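Below is one record:
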Amino acid sequence: MDAIEGGLDVNPEAARRLILARDRDDAPIVDAELDAALGLRIAAVEARLDTLRLLDRHGVQRFDQGDLAYAVVRAFYRVLKPELRARPGLSLLDLGSGYGRFGLYGGLRHGLAAHGLELVPERAEEAARAARALGLAQVSFAAGDLLTAPWPAADVYCMMNAVLPRLLPPVLTRLEAEARRRRIVVASVSTSNRAFAQAPWLRELPVEAEGVAGRELRLWESV
């Protein structure tokens, strides 16, 4: 049997209580503690991945783990909270979802419908397994290249530095097409921020957060 097959014992209610507790205060979040509560076996999956094989398969893309700290995830949902209240049934698409922290957190904290698209199949499979174990029927994950794979329609798009800067133009083109159909919100970090800041069809939303979240996280809405 695979060394990580079968998974961890997961208590969905305990995981939800932990997320609610971390969301109510500004205490530091221990990422490994929350991953364990969500049943994510990140270290075990990463140990199985062959970097050379990933490089051969995805050499023109970012395939490193790249999962953002839960402090950024918490800040994101705090900024998004008025949207969640004003627009029941809001849906999220996480482009380059890694192990699904955004979708799993939002599903437990807000009952959010979320879909993650991840380049590395093993990560998408682990995120999907965790969602099933937590009973999050409205949270799903799939393996695919966000540059070419179909995008389900969403209200909020997470684009957390998942591709190299030179590959961002087609992503912005697809997002602009979505924005013509309905109002959307886009979240980004790091080098992706510069590209979104130059998009005339977006305007920035205020983000009040400390530490890495305040330095990196930016939110935009279509105009």
